[in-house]
Amino acid sequence: MTIQIDKNTLEKYDVCGPRYTSYPTAPQWSSDVNANVYAARLKAFGQNDKTLSLYIHIPFCEQLCYFCACNKVIRASEAKVGDEFLNHLFKEMDMVAVHIGQRKLIRQLHLGGGTPTYLSESQLQKLFTKVHSHFDIDFQEEIAIEIDPRTVSQNKLKTLRDLGFNRLSMGVQDFDAKVQDDINRIQPFEQVRQVHQWCKDLKFISVNFDLIYGLPYQTRETFAKTVDLVIRLRPDRIALYSFAYVPWLSKPQNKFNLEAIPVHDEKLDIFIQSRDHLLAHGYEAIAMDHFALTSDDMAKAFNQGKLHRNFMGYTLKPADEYIGLGPSAIGFLENTYIQNVKVLPQYYEQMSKGQLPVERGKVLSADDQIRQWVINRLMCRFEIDKKEFLTKFGFAFEAYFTPEGGHIHDCIEDGLISENPRRIRVTDLGKIFIRNVCMGFDWYLRQNNGHQRFSRTV
Ligand SMILES: C[S@@+](CC[C@H](N)C(=O)[O-])C[C@H]1O[C@@H](n2cnc3c(N)ncnc32)[C@H](O)[C@@H]1O
Ligand code: SF4
Questions:
Q1: Residue 196 lies in a domain
Q2: Which of 157, 204, 205, 380 matches a 20 to 30 Å C-alpha distance to 366?
Q3: CA of 351 to the centre of ligand 2 (A)
Q4: If residue 52 lies in a helix (H) or strand (E), which one and from where to where?
């Protein structure tokens, strides 16, 4: 059933707010978390038998997409660029492994970017061999990579499958020619169809398409055609991201004609229409902005209340701890977020000096951990079980969140959540505004009256 949203609700909730890939969010992180803190966390991790989720950031892309808010470096395809990068990345991996001091089991491996398939087949093989030299890998779990369909060949996909990658995600964004031209990303349907067919032939367990709604020159009609074409290919999963317009962070977004960017009700309509279309064609809406075929393990995990989320996105089975390698990569070890330096020359410089390339992070207080859990539950399960909260933290939910009573009341009044003595449940309307529901539990946002620079929640 389509969701009706009245003008007042839209006006009230179309504000700037975090996506909560972490809590506390990045503006709260500081240089207090430095190389020494990271070294101590790695050492502690080495003294227990916890498992590992490893994220490796490969920053290169061959061409700039003007909408992109990822940490990337544009370089023409050249073997020496990848070789130089791997030399430095391997130094970081060696350093991290020495601090840990034992072989850990990787239960989730994720290569992200930028575009990891910027690396050649032999470079990808070299990278995999290096990971294997320090860590064990559980190939039954999620071994995932982000690819760009414009630059990946059938052979490269085969190499990835042979190495053990079982899930992949590709940027599709939008098939409309005018939109593609404006965002500087020409990618015909036939190209995506071909790459997707190769992925199916190679029996990747799950293939995800990234789409973005809210891009310049998109209309309800043009994006309906894009969604139609996507449905024709039937990828296992679809991430339908809201365009994060953050020109103060991503300067090339300043090229866009502001008049051409759909906002407010038009943008929301594009999302709701796409959601309805996907639901009518066998996809399930799972958590925030993700859709999956009922047969996909992510849909199953969502329905069983077993979906998790971290800065790599939604995940099936969380490892105990996270380590990020490469520029801007984020880890989470022993209740501490750790982020590497973002700028590539700085990253290289730190590696040449033999220093862990930490830029900033955040040690979570007891209150941070409680709010992190609540926000995660809302994002992944759309509900909070108050008894589970009491058992886990030793506080009654209502007593702990007395200052948030007004927010909870407002969300109920506006139809975003329902509440009974046992649970808080997010309604279908609340799922659309889930970032707003979470924002009320964000202690830092309240202290700053929300005066931080995030993308809009709608
Ligand atoms: C690292 S890229 C995916 C892999 C590859 N680089 C590609 O583009 O095909 C990650 C995804 O982030 C999303 N993304 C990037 N910038 C965004 C923005 N400003 N707003 C919303 N989504 C964005 C895009 O959907 C993109 O596919
Ligand atoms: S969307 Fe992907 S390919 Fe385009 S610039 Fe961003 S990371 Fe690179």
A1: yes
A2: 380
A3: 25
A4: strand 52-58
